[in-house]
Amino acid sequence: MALLPSSLTDPQISRHLLREEGEDIVDEVRKHWIVYIIPALVGLLALVCLIGFMLADPSWAPIPLVIGVILAVWASWRALSENIDRFVITNMRVFRVHGLFSRNLATMPLSRILDITVVKPFSGRIMGYGHFTFESAAQAQGLREIKYVGDPDRRDLAIQRVVQRAGLRGQATGQGSGTLSR
After folding, report:
1. What CA–CA distance (Å, rounded) separates 33 from 128?
2. Regions in the chain scoring below 50 on pLDDT
3. How far is CA 69 from the centre of its chain?
4. Pick from 136, 75, 146, 143: which is nearest to 111 by CA?
5. What is the distance between the alpha carbons of residues 163 and 37, in angstroms, rounded to a whole number?
6. For 138-181, what is each residue's pLDDT tens digit?
7. How many domains does the chain have?
8. Domain carrying residue 145
9. pTM of the full predicted structure?
10. CATH number, domain with residue 133
11. 3-state DSSP call for residue 130?
12. Backbone dihedral angles phi then psi of residue 144, each to the nearest 5 degrees
């Protein structure tokens, strides 16, 4: 028997696809494992507090118990939130599903993507993650920043390939390959 309902652990991406229109998943991106480090450390601290509860004087025992339970709940909530946060690249659009109790869906059709900025901080270059920023013609957009994307160069190329195959950018002609013509 599962401890949690699947709606809390699975974003159910297939429910958001336009299958009858021919939409297929190119890549489903989970957050990089580094986002789980803080919840894991807080979970360990919660465990220490719960052990302290068992070893504490009975008059003081409720204090580490309450602290341990609060820390365990926070660490679980944070880890589940990170797990449910998915960025999806399809042959028609990119979208992000996130939110543990109230689900949020932000979508951008491929035709609206004007620019993608990939930022790889020093730690990201070492650990293999980066952050995406999408620019579109819209002033305000629901899908702007995607943080902690694993293997960001490969994901950026996947988006560029899908955009190119959809015919939304000019075709590469082989002319203008770095030389000026008069």
Report:
1. 10
2. 1, 173-182
3. 27
4. 136
5. 34
6. 666 677 888 999 999 999 998 888 888 877 665 554 444 443 33
7. 1
8. 19-165
9. 0.75
10. 2.30.29
11. strand
12. -120, -55
